[in-house]
Design goal:
The chain is of the alpha/beta class and 327 residues long. The protein has helices at residues 15-23, 61-73, 83-89, 107-115, 131-144, 148-169, 194-200, 219-225, 239-245, 259-262, 271-274, 282-293, and strands at 10-12, 30-34, 48-52, 79-81, 93-96, 122-125, 178-181, 183-184, 187-188, 191-192, 209-210, 229-232, 266-269, 307-309. It has two domains: 10-152, Rossmann fold, CATH 3.40.50; 175-309, 3-Layer(aba) Sandwich (Rossmann fold). It has twelve helices and 14 strands. The strands form four sheets. It has a six-stranded mixed β-sheet with strand order 4-3-2-1-5-6. Strands 7-12-13-14 form a four-stranded mixed β-sheet. Strands 8-9 form a two-stranded antiparallel ribbon. Strand 5 (93-96), helix 4 and strand 6 form a beta-alpha-beta unit.
Length: 327
Amino acid sequence: MTKAAGSRRIVSFLPSATEMVYALGLGDRLMGITHECDYPPAATTKPVVVRNVLPIDRMSQPEIDVAVTERLRDGLSLYQVDEALVRDIAPDLILTQNLCQVCAPSGNEVTQLVKSLASNPRILWLTPKSLDQIFDNVRELGEATDRLSRAEALIAAGRARLEEIATATRDLCERPRVFCMEWMDPVYCCGHWVPEMVRIAGGRDELGRDGTDSVRIPWSEVLRWAPEVLIVMPCGFHMEKAAEQAQRLFAYPGWSDLPAVRTGRVFAVDANSYFARPGPRVVEGTELLAHLLHPARFDWKGPQGAFRQLLPVSSSARGSRVPAATG
C-alpha cells in the first residue's frame, strides 16, 4: 500500500473513535477498524484489525463475566490484533484508549504493537471519563487531522443540544430516582459519563459512579434505592440483545416491588449506540434519557429501535412505547 500525499492513514481500535472519524469527514482516511465498529454503516467495509478472543455472541452474561475476569486476572488480553495487517497498512495515526481493558486493546498491547511496526505512528489516547472529556477527544482528533474547525462545530452543536435539555429540566420540582444497569448478572451500576447524562435529562442515579468505572453492586442496593425508572443498558449490547438478556430480571427477588416495575417504566436501550461508546451519539443518548424520564416534556425523534419497554415474555405488549408520566 502506498501513502496518498498529504493524507493520514488512520487505524481505529475504538468504535467511538471510528464514529468520530466519520463525523469529522475522515472516512476515506480510515484504513483499519475493530470487529465492533458498526457505525456508520460505511465503517463495516473497512479492514478489521482487531477481533475479540472470546466468543461473546455465544455466551451468557455470567459466562462472559467469569471469562473476562479470569483472563484479566491471568494477564491475558481480551483482543487479538492482526499485526501483519497493521504493518501492511502502515498507519501514521492510531486511535486507542487506556480506560477499560474490556472495551478495546489498551496500554501494553498498543505499546507492543507499535514496537513491531517499521513506521512510527502517532498514538492518540482517547480516555474520557465525562461528557466534557468526550468533547475534548473530538477536538484532539480534529487537531491531529487538520479538521479542527469541523470538530469545533460538532462540539458546539452537541453542547447546544445538551444545554437545551438541561434548561428544560432545570425547573423540575422532583427528579425521578433512576437506576442505569450496565450489566445484569452480576449487577453493575453505571459509571463515567452516564450519571451526568441522567442529571442533564432530569433524573437522579445515586448508585452510579461519576467519572469512574462502573462496579458490581449487591441487588439489595437496587431494592433499597427503589428506582422509579430502570434503564437496562448492558455494555457491548444493542437493544434487541439487551431486551433478550433482561428477561432474567423478572426472576430477581423483589423485582415486582420496584416502583419502576409497578408503573411499567423499565426499558432496555441500545447501549452501544447511545451510552457505552464515548462518541458523538452520547448527545442522542441524553435526549433518549430525557424522553424516557419525562415523556410529556421530551419527544424522541430517533430510531424506534433505540429502546423497548420491558414486560414479561408472556405479555402481549412489547412495543417501544413510554407510559405517560408527569414532569
